Amino acid sequence: MQYGFFDDLNREYVITTPTTPYPWINYLGSQEYFSLISNTAGGYSFYKDAKLRRITRFRYNNVPLDLGGGRYYYINDGGDVWSPGWAPAKKELENYECRHGMGYTKISGERGGVETNITFFVPLNTNAEVHKVIVKNKTNDNKKVKLFSFVEWCLWNALDDMTNFQRNYNTGEVEVKGSVIYHKTEYKERRNHYAFFSVNAPICGFDSDRESFIGTYNGFENPQAVYAGQSNNSVADGWHPIASHCVEVDLEPGETKEYIFLLGYVENDLEDKWESKNIINKKKAEAMIEAFKTVDAVDKALKELSEYWDQLLSKYRIDSADDKLNRMVNIWNQYQCMVTFNLSRSASYFESGIGRGMGFRDSNQDLLGFVHQIPDRARERIIDLASTQLEDGGAYHQYQPLTKKGNDEIGGNFNDDPLWLILAVVAYIKETGDFSILDVMTPFDNDETKSTPLSDHLKRSFDHVIHNLGPHGLPLIGRADWNDCLNLNCFSMEPGESFQTTTSKDGKVAESVMIAGMFCYIGEEYAKLMKKTGNDSEADRAYLEVDKMRKTIMEHGWDGSWFVRAYDDFGRKVGSDDNEEGKIFIESQGLCIMGNCGMEDGKAIKALDAVEERLATKYGLVLQNPAFTKYYVEYGEISTYPAGYKENAGIFCHNNAWIMAAEALVGRGDKAFDYYTRIAPAYTEEYSEIHRMEPYVYSQMVAGKDAKRHGEAKNSWLTGTASWNFIAISQYILGIKPEYDGLQIDPSIPKSWDGYKITREFRGDIYEITIKNPNHVSSGVVKLTVDGKEVEGNILPIFGDKKKHVAEVILG
């Protein structure tokens, strides 16, 4: 069953019913001001930090679903009250449509001959979201309707806002000036920031107190002011400040009127604190309002946003016979990569924006998927991340985007974290050729007195692994590796010892074969980087350590038919045929093969065959098998989930990409692409009633074969799945991979394909690459020509002339 369709020409997903299986959302903003908006206009806004600069309020796990707050509009048409986006009034609409596009959302609704269209977007370089509202009379009679707007202010710190009622019910303050409602709660305290909501038309009333507008015992669906057809002109004094305008709209038959609402944020300079006692300085807000007061100005800003996305999405484009592949690669996957870059895992319909900031591991991986689009911002992000690293090479697992300080509550000791920094830096340099980043003086723990060149941070990341090895010579897992729920050092118990009599023993010696595979994969990239920069001695040392780790993996990490996942704190295998449950895990299979383990003796193929036999389902590859059916205290959180969900044998889409990459590396392009199609969103659209999440973006998790709701997704949008699946399809399957000296062409595709075309911008040059597959093979470049001249090998050279270059690739 489908609930909409792809409009590839306009780069939109068009939703044709408001009652999707779950709220299908979009993100507005690309720099500092961000908004989440659902297909019925639910969601919230914030500036930089979803926890510390929350602008509008939202209630999670709300009943009814997605009625926890939003930017709501109501029409009162002679006593008939309805909402253009269906919610919150939930009156039946004669026509409804939501178009989620690149950084904007358009929602339209029609009832009683009145059509209302609203375009929501955040203009470039602007800390505000625009709501362009068009009201049209489609009848042959005059219409006099009232248009009500509504947002509810959050009191800035989202956690404090939802917990500290005894204080916050006394702090809400607003100021109303003309058609602008200012939210100045804590302005006197912070003295430098406020929010506002304006409309570019005279208003016949306003409300800024929630109880006055909605009514003490009413809900968003039936606000008393809207049903009365008249605002109360209430001024909030504590309690719950809101912003609502009332605009009288007189329409002749066929007439249309347009209004511009602006929801914005201002952070004043210190010298701009206030105009006078308790009156905020409105100059910056007034300048923003003036800039977007006309429809022409708004349309111009929307066009600029579209051109911005034209430029970003032009960096990598495919033209193939598969429309679903084209829309994923050209539009939605790259769009999602940019959203994950902006927000990491902090704010979605599954992450509250309160519990998590920017992840060290997460953001370094997210960078892989967008570095080709905005390398300058990737460079800045790398320095931000490296600045939270600790002197021993470890890292804070998360940091707050507003302060860029490491999160002490989460701390470090996730022993995979340091390696991801190396991979991010390597990806950045390969994309840009900018080796100067290695010389940037970068602090540890944001202490400028402890700054060293970024290259030293990479060395400490590399050494953090070899300085933390366990009894088998494999890396210690620490609190966890990539799999946060595999907590093998959670409790130290002797075999047979009961939980009640547990006593900790010296040291935490659980080891991770997954980190070992990562070390071989990423450590070799570190060695190549050192070689490229002329640091031969460091390169030689790194190669020796990587070679030693590969031998250790094959000695202690090979189980006979697949790679072991780990050793627990008692030296017992995890992810082995010896285990009763959890015999095989996906992560070590993918990363060990990406780390070139078992490639020469057939063990890699054997491991991948085991993946297909034991982990594959029609909806993707499960994380492990068999699922845990009981709690294992020595394994930690992973066995607390019901079988088939999340880390307990759920389909974790993030690590599916590592298997795609591994299959491509061994030359099995059919299998690599088959796995790609099982989880790529566009391919899930036909069974949306099962999948439930948006059919245009990846979800973190899909319920596995042991689950009662097999195939149902959760945790959409903010997931490393986005970047890794873009890497899997663009670099490993389609085979266009940046290297230090050019673009490497090394496809691994289904044998049935005749070919495809790729347009790739690389270091300012434009490459138009045609791949031909006349012999219907999966891999192997037998001929490469560039601008009509044959090139030896499979590297497209860097011309540096900012011109177009035409390449033809023959597989055989």
From TrEMBL:
Report the residue ranges that make up the Glycosyl hydrolase 94 supersandwich domain in this protein.
Answer: 11-293
Q: Name one Pfam family in it.
A: GH94_b-supersand
The protein's GO terms of the molecular function aspect are: carbohydrate binding; glycosyltransferase activity
Record-annotated Glycoside hydrolase family 65 C-terminal domain positions: 741-791
Q: Which residues form the Glycosyl hydrolase 94 catalytic domain?
A: 308-735
Q: Which UniProt keywords apply?
A: Glycosyltransferase, Transferase
Family annotation (SUPFAM superfamilies): Galactose mutarotase-like (SSF74650), Six-hairpin glycosidases (SSF48208)
Entry-linked InterPro entries:
6-hairpin_glycosidase_sf, 6hp_glycosidase-like_sf, Gal_mutarotase_sf_dom, GH65_N, GH94_catalytic, GH94_Enzymes, GH94N_CBP, Glyco_hydro_65_C
Its GO biological process annotations read: carbohydrate metabolic process
Looking up Gene3D superfamilies in the UniProt record yields: 1.50.10.10, Glycoside hydrolase, family 65, N-terminal domain, Maltose phosphorylase, domain 3, mpn423 like domain
Protein's name in the database: Glycosyl transferase
